[in-house]
Structures are given as C-alpha cells and as structure tokens.
Amino acid sequence: MPFPTDLLVFSPNDVDLSYSPLRSSIQAQTYVLGAFNPGLTRLPNGNLLLMIRVAEALNQPIIGEQIHTIRWDQAGGYVLDAYPLNSVNAADPRKFQLLGYPYKVMALTSLSWLLPVELTPDGTRVVSVHYDKIIAPQRTYQEYGVEDARLSKIGDTYYMTTCSVSAERHSTTLYTSTDGLNYTLRGIILDHQNKDMVLFEGLIDGKFYALTRPLGDLYFATRPGSDSFPGPSINLSSSPDALHWKPVDEPFIRARKGSASTMKIGGGTPPILTEKGWLLLYHGVELNGVVGIYRTFWALLDANDPTQLIQLHDTTPLMEPNSALTEPIKDQLYLSGVVFTTGIVEAGDHYIVASGEADLACRITHLPKSLF
C-alpha cells in the first residue's frame, strides 16, 4: 500500500563515528552495520525524537584463524574478544554461534549504542544529531550493547525501555527522562530474554501496563485443533511504579494459523489511546530463510481492560518491507524483507510511524487515521 509519506530519514551514512563511544578504547577500524529500530516521541518543543540503535561492527572481524567480537569491560572500556574460527557457525550476519556447548551460545558481530536524533515536527527532516547525549553500556549487564529503544511519555515523564545484552542475562532495562533528551538508567525491570517490552502511553486504573515477549528455545504444543502456533507471543504485564512488573495471567496475542505471521510475533509501537481503544502496531514474522519476513500488523484493545481484544488484523499487513527505500544504499544491505515498527505519535489526521527498515536504516511513514 503506498502512503503519502514513506521515506528513509536516517541511515548508516548519517552517523559520524568520530563520536562513537568505542573510540575511547578501540583502535580497530569499524563501520555502521545499521542505524535502525528507533524509539519515537515528541519533545516539549514540538519536534520529534528518534532514539536510534547504532550497530557498530568491525571492518575485519576475521583475522587469520580467529573471529572477533566487541565487548564493554567495566575495568578497561571496550575490548576485542577472539574465538577460533573453526569453533563457530556464522550463517547469520548479525551474530555467530559458539559450538561445543550443550545449549545455544551466541556472540554478536556488532555492539549497539543509542543515538538521539531530533526531527522536524512532521518527522521528514533531521534537525540535530545529539552526539553529546549518546546512551552506551555502563553496567556489566550491557557488556554486548544497548538495543531497540521504545519510548512512552506518561504524564510528565518519558519512559524508555531497552534490551541490554550480556553473558549475565539478556534483559529489559528502563531509562527515564523529564525532557525527552537526557536519560537516567533505572536498572533491570525484566529478566532473561524478555524482549520487545513496550509501555502503554498512559495509565489504566492507576497502573502501568506493558507488552512483553518472553523468548526461549523450548515451547510446548498447543492443543489439537487450536488456532494458535506454539512459540513467541505478545503478553501483558502490569506495574504500580514501572519498576516492578507482574505478568497478566491470561494469554494475549499469539501467532495464529492462517495469519501472515506464523513464525513469531512481538510488540512494536507503544499502545496509544484513541476514541476506539488502545491502538497497537506489532510485528509478525513469516518463516523464510534464516531471519524470516517481518511485517507490521495492528490491533485495538479495550480502553479500560487491555486484555480484551476489540480488533485483531493479522492477515493483511499494515506495512511491508519496501526495497525501493533502500535502493540508494543497497550496497550496504545484509538482510532483506524486514520492516520492524517501533514508534508512533499523533499528528492531526494521521499518525507518524517510525520503523527499522532491513535492520539498516530508519523509516518514517505517515498513516491516515482512516486506516484504523
């Protein structure tokens, strides 16, 4: 479906790596593997803010018979770790698997940090790149990077969830801000492999609510005749303070048989309250190759009871990957078939939606409210 505004607003070419936090201690040459999956919010001055994930990778990860990964070390800043090349499986360009363990152990081909980028109110042009406000690893549970920010403004506070990656745990961490630009780390709020945590942009009966998605390598079979597949799903949690979370007992959105997202699903934009209920955009993945095809779908939840689905649109995608957008930078592509929607704000008769395109760049799309 063509949209009135659908463009790439920020790409790896727009990142000045002289400001990279890695420059403080790594001399090896690096490049921007991707500048993507941006959190989105509106600042007090009316401009928009993208909180962009910058995945910084080594130009030459393989030297001789070793492959290297970047790690933040509390004692010595950023360091390079080496692994024998014959001890890994590097089929996925984003990570490699260390062989010889009784369970799956991965290492990343890049380390991610967050870059705040200010846009015009319509989201179509960059106003400022805030290199002085970069968010980088600062605790051992972030030793392999800070990924995939999601921004929700609740009352006078900006809440930002991120995925923190380490050997200790693969966790969700929380940052807060009073101005949308300067963030304070509040710590871990969900433990191991609970990804894509997205806070509702508003309280319900005085409680915070959030979408969560626990991951794992073991899932149990659905009952015979079930319309759902086993596997990753979107769940709900509530909290009195945004720090301490209790999962909602009832299941929520699952990958349905007959839908276009049979591989897995996960949270996308912070749910926002509309006249019809809470509007949620989420991603669904179709089994295809190593990574799959990522598309954007949507749902409406009851305004007073978000466990109640009013509408679920999981057969016809709202947004598809758009290879025409990445054509000017196609020499930098390492994946295809991915749109990963991560932010939404209101703008009169339409919504401004932020996505990561091909795990490479930031996409801005204007969606008419009449679509919902």
Labels describing this entry:
1% helix, single chain, 5-stranded antiparallel sheet, Tachylectin-2, Chain A, 27 strands, mainly beta, 372 residues, globular, 4-stranded antiparallel sheet, glycosyltransferase activity
Classified by CATH, the class is Mainly Beta
Enumerate how many helices there are, as a single number.
1
Tally of distinct domains: 1
The whole-angstrom Rg is 20 Å
**Average predicted confidence as pLDDT:** 94
CATH superfamily name?
Glycosyl hydrolase domain, family 43
Gap between N and C termini: 14 Å
Assigned CATH architecture: 5 Propeller
Shape by Cα distribution = globular
How would you explain this protein's 3D organization?
The chain has 372 residues and is mostly beta strands. The protein has one domain: 5 Propeller (Tachylectin-2, Chain A), CATH 2.115.10. 1% of the residues lie in helices and 48% in strands. It contains one helix and 27 strands. The strands form seven sheets. Strands 20, 21, 22, 23 and 24 form a five-stranded antiparallel beta sheet that branches. Strand 2 and strand 3 form a beta hairpin. The longest helix has 4 residues. It comes from Fibrella aestuarina BUZ 2. This is Glycosidase PH1107-related protein.
